[in-house]
Amino acid sequence: MEKQQTIAIALIVFITLGFILYKSLGSYVRKAYGKKWLQAWGNKVYFWQALVLTSTLSTALVMLFLKWNNLLIF
């Protein structure tokens, strides 16, 4: 049961951080590079790759912080 809860918490954190980063990075990219930049397929891949990598690393840091504070056991 603990493993399922840990996975559920990690997924919730990942999706939440991904959404927050998508909103903030999306508005930044539109302001900095314009709307056409995200229409190119290669640029979309670059954007999503950076988003997934950042979300994954942020989720790992949050999970380690929760473990360090003994709020989560895994």
Features:
mainly alpha
Quick synopsis:
Helices cover 81% and strands 0% of the residues.
Following the backbone from N to C, one meets helices and strands in this order, namely HH
Kindly provide the radius of gyration, computed on alpha-carbon positions and rounded to a whole number of angstroms.
15 Å
Binned strand content: under 5%
- Biggest sheet architecture: none
- Give helix % range: over 70%
| Backbone shape | elongated
Helical/strand content category: mainly alpha
Uncertain ranges:
none
Distance between the termini: 11 Å
Compute the average pLDDT: 92
DSSP strand tally? 0
Oligomer: single chain
Number of domains: 1
Number of helices: 2
Mind explaining what this structure looks like?
The protein is mainly alpha-helical and 74 residues long. It has one domain (2-68). The chain is 81% helix and 0% strand. It is built from 2 helices and no strands. It has helices spanning 2-33, 41-68. The radius of gyration is 15 Å and the shape is elongated. It starts with a helix and ends in a 6-residue tail after the last helix. Keywords: Membrane, Transmembrane, Transmembrane helix.
List the helices and strands and how they pair.
Blueprint (H helix, E strand, L loop, with lengths): L1 H32 L7 H28 L6
